[in-house]
Each structure stands twice: as structure tokens, then as C-alpha cells.
Design goal:
Elements: H1 3-13, H2 17-24, H3 30-52, H4 54-62, H5 64-88, H6 93-100, H7 103-114, H8 119-123, H9 125-143, H10 152-176, H11 182-204, H12 215-243, H13 245-251, H14 255-267, H15 273-305
Helix pairs in contact: 1-12, 2-6, 3-4, 3-11, 3-12, 5-10, 5-11, 6-14, 7-10, 9-15, 11-12, 12-13, 13-15
């Protein structure tokens, strides 16, 4: 499968998890549905890894340094998903997807702090212009709701905090992929995530609620795990490895559009006109930010080759 097809599948697939989670929120608590969804995806990844990447899986499991880093990666991702899923219970799925695009600007800032070749990004005019658009877009999306909704403000804060941790996860994943195959990393990451959600569910959830749910809902939840987590983790890591973290996150800017379409078709969920306008401002700002980064990095590379 070529790089473009992987990016397209990821963009469409990443629009689905927030819709799935919102739909299942009336049947399961956040920790319970997350446990079963990640467990289903983990089993799916394990089968793929065992059949096609058995050697890589064994080598990674035998490498203590890799396992330690994967555990660290998982803890960050677990915190991100807990905040994000809990936030989706309180705000519309499309709004959550829009707010999650804040991770783009966070990724750029952390790239500047961690990588010397990224420091020219912050000094560029495009960075400041794009940052203003992003901040204005987020403020407009939050304030453009209109009628107040119980838990709305709390949900917004949770989604934004989840986006912050998600950006750290992306940067750590880029480093982890230097030592670990994407499918193997996805397998171990997702299985450890399911274990984490099981512990959370035992204390603050109700894992036994699956026995009281309709069979169709249970099947849908497991299916949504394979599709949603598969694209949110598996395809995401594959694209970071093949296309890079910058291009991957640029493509993800289109996911709010697909999320809005899926949420409208499945649940009749809508944004207000002002939220649509400010959401477009937010996505535009993130796009300019990443595009300017790519240009600056390319120019720096060309300059480094000059005698």
C-alpha cells in the first residue's frame, strides 16, 4: 500500500473514534468501553504481529530499553485518551475533534524546544500569524456554542488537556519508531492501554455492564475498537514512520470535516454557524503553521548542503 493511500485511510479512520465513543456513551462508562475497544484492537494487532512480524515482536520484547520506553509512551497515551474520552461525554463529537487540532501547534512548540533544526519555525512570521488564528479559532469554537450545556466548559478543558498529552505522545512515538516496528509498537501499546483501562474500570467503571448490553451494541463496540483504535494508533504510527510527524498531523487537519459528516448522519449532531466559521479558522491556522514548518525545514536542509 502506497503512502498516499495510508494517509487517506488514516484521515478518514481518525474521524470515526469520537463518533463511536459518543454513540456508546449512553451504554457504557468511559473506562468500560475504552477497555473493551482497546482489548479488541489489541487482539487484532497481536494476530497480525504474530503472523507477519513475529521476529520483530520477539526482538522488541527481549529489549528492556524498548519495553521501558513503550511503557512510558503508553502512560502518556493513556492519560491523553482518558481526558479525551471523558471530554467527549460532555461535548459534541465534532467540537471535540476540532479542539483536538490544538495538538498541532503544541507539536511545533515542543519540536522547537527539543530539536535545534526546528528553532527557525518560531522566529518566522508565519508562526505568529498561524498561532493567532489557532488561538482565535479555539476561542470562537468554545464561545460560539450559544445556549449553555451542563458540563460543557469541563468537557472543553478535558479535550484540550488530552490534546496536550497527545502531542507529547506523537513526539515520543517518533523516537520510539527508530527502534521498534510500527505494527509491533501498536500491538504492545494497545494491549498495555487495555490493561490500564481495565484497572481504571475496576475502580471507577463497570466492566460487567457488557453482560447487560444488547448483543448488537457489544458487537458494535468491539468492531469500533478494531476500526477506531486501528486507525487512531496503528495507521497513525505507520504514517509517522513513512511520512513523518509533520505531514501526518497536517493530513489529520481534515478529520473534523469527516467527523462532522459522520456525526450528522449517525446522531444528527450539529455545530452552530459561528462554531463552523471559527472551526474553519482553527484548521486554517494549523495548516499554515505546519506548511510554514515544512518550508523552513526544507530551506534549512538545502542551506546545510551548500559548501
Amino acid at each position: 500500500m502506497n503512502k498516499k493511500m495510508l494517509l487517506v485511510l488514516m484521515a478518514v479512520g481518525n474521524a470515526l473514534p469520537s463518533v463511536f465513543i459518543k454513540y456508546l456513551s449512553s451504554h457504557f462508562d468511559p473506562f468500560t468501553q475504552s477497555f473493551y475497544r482497546f482489548l479488541a484492537a489489541g487482539v487484532f494487532f497481536l494476530i497480525i504481529a504474530f503472523i507477519f512480524f513475529r521476529t520483530e515482536l520477539k526482538e522488541t520484547c527481549a529489549d528492556r530499553r524498548s519495553i521501558f520506553f513503550i511503557i512510558l509512551l503508553t502512560l502518556v497515551n493513556l492519560g491523553s485518551v482518558v481526558l479525551w474520552v471523558t471530554g467527549i461525554y460532555l461535548v459534541p463529537a465534532t467540537l471535540a475533534e476540532l479542539l483536538s487540532k490544538l495538538q498541532v501547534i503544541i507539536i511545533v512548540v515542543f519540536s522547537y524546544l527539543l530539536f535545534r533544526d526546528e528553532q527557525e519555525v518560531i522566529r518566522s512570521r508565519s508562526f505568529f500569524a498561524a498561532s493567532i488564528l489557532c488561538i482565535a479559532g479555539v476561542a470562537g469554537v468554545i464561545l460560539g456554542k450559544g445556549a449553555p450545556v451542563t458540563g460543557y466548559s469541563k468537557g472543553v478543558v478535558l479535550v484540550i488537556l488530552g490534546s496536550f498529552l497527545s502531542s507529547i505522545y506523537a513526539l515520543l512515538a517518533k523516537k520510539a519508531l527508530n527502534r521498534t516496528h510500527p505494527v509491533v509498537l501498536s500491538t504492545l501499546n494497545v494491549l498495555l492501554m487495555s490493561a490500564g483501562f481495565l484497572l481504571l474500570g475496576l475502580f471507577w467503571g463497570d466492566p460487567g455492564s457488557i453482560t447487560r448490553a444488547a448483543p448488537g451494541i457489544t458487537v458494535f463496540m468491539l468492531f469500533s475498537g478494531v476500526i477506531g483504535v486501528g486507525s487512531g494508533v496503528g495507521l497513525y504510527l505507520l504514517n509517522i514512520r513513512s511520512a513523518g510527524v509533520v505531514v501526518t498531523n497536517m493530513v489529520l487537519l481534515v478529520t473534523p470535516l469527516f467527523t462532522a459528516i459522520f456525526a450528522f448522519l449517525s446522531m444528527g449532531e450539529k455545530l452552530t454557524p459561528w462554531q463552523m466559521v471559527w472551526g474553519a479558522v482553527l484548521v486554517t491556522g494549523c495548516y499554515i503553521l505546519i506548511k510554514s514548518q515544512r518550508v523552513i525545514v526544507k530551506d534549512s536542509f538545502q542551506k546545510s548542503k551548500c559548501p
